[in-house]
Specification:
Strand content: 5-15%
Shape: globular
Number of strands: 7
Strand order of the largest sheet: 1-2-6-7
Structural class: alpha/beta
Radius of gyration: 18 Å
Largest sheet: 4 strands, antiparallel
Helix content: 25-40%
Length: about 270
């Protein structure tokens, strides 16, 4: 996300979602499993940085989650812009949604077994929580023994075991209000390198998107979004994807198709 006060408005471009990760490419629920960017994801982040540089953005502060793909995306963007010196603050509250027992599963296979509509509800609805992760889950130990969460502002016992989008917004809002909003109101230009669902949750809050309409909000990887906000951080208009609009719409369709049954070529 980016923001600088211009007259009474504040430009708030948001890199809604990190570049493509390895599991994104494999169409698996990645969630809190730490994955680096794929080769395509690296290119997406670099291209984003080039585009933002061409548009003349200059950042004062960067916020990321504590997951590598979010941080790596921020690094690559800043490097392309020649702004590697800009301070970065990371918090688990900007993490991707915790998909619980679905972590590691293939979305298309889930659609085949449970139906595309059920997978869409799990992925896109506001208040439906997937089944929680159990201690027998193959990625449980990897997530909950990770040293990065020992530095969080809640105990590891109180970290989520599964989340709806509503849960994501509930844990994100304190960080937004206490850490990010004061920086925006001081006139700083802010970049937030986040994830698909933490970005959707933030958009829902800022733009007042209804519980019903948020299910149809899809964000492609590595595409910055511009929000124009007034001095009270209320939107002056709908968010805008920055870049080639035809390519962006194709990227959105690609994300939407992740939860669909794959057709078999004959």
């Amino acid at each position: 996300m980016i923001s600088r006060g211009i007259s009474e408005a504040r430009n708030l471009p948001l890199l809604e979602r990190h570049g493509e990760g390895a599991w994104t490419k494999e169409n698996r629920f990645c969630s809190w499993v730490d994955q680096k960017l794929s080769s395509d994801g690296i290119k997406e982040a670099q291209n984003c940085g080039k585009h933002l540089k061409a548009l003349g953005f200059e950042f004062d502060l960067v916020f990321t989650s504590v997951l590598s793909r979010s941080i790596q995306t921020a690094w690559l963007i800043l490097e392309e812009m020649g702004q590697e010196w800009v301070p970065i603050q990371s918090s688990w509250r900007l993490n991707e949604r915790h998909y619980g027992a679905l972590i590691g599963l293939n979305r298309a296979e889930m659609a085949l077994n449970h139906g595309e509509e059920q997978v869409k509800i799990w992925r896109r609805s506001y208040d439906v929580t997937p089944p929680p992760i159990s201690e027998s889950h193959p990625y449980y130990e990897e997530i909950y023994n990770d040293r990065r969460y020992k530095c969080s502002d809640v105990s590891q016992d109180n970290l989520p075991k599964a989340e709806s989008l509503k849960d994501v917004l509930d844990r994100l809002l304190p960080y937004w209000n206490e850490k990010i909003v004061p920086e925006l109101k001081s006139g700083k230009m802010i970049l937030i390198s986040a994830h698909g669902n933490s970005s959707r949750a933030l958009l829902k809050h800022v733009e007042g998107i209804s519980d019903e309409d948020i299910i149809n909000v899809t964000l492609p990887t590595g595409v910055p979004i511009l929000l124009e906000l007034d001095e009270n951080l209320h939107p002056l208009g709908p968010h805008q994807f920055l870049g080639d609009q035809e390519a962006i719409q194709a990227a959105i369709r690609k994300v939407e198709d992740q939860g669909k049954v794959k057709s078999v070529e004959k």
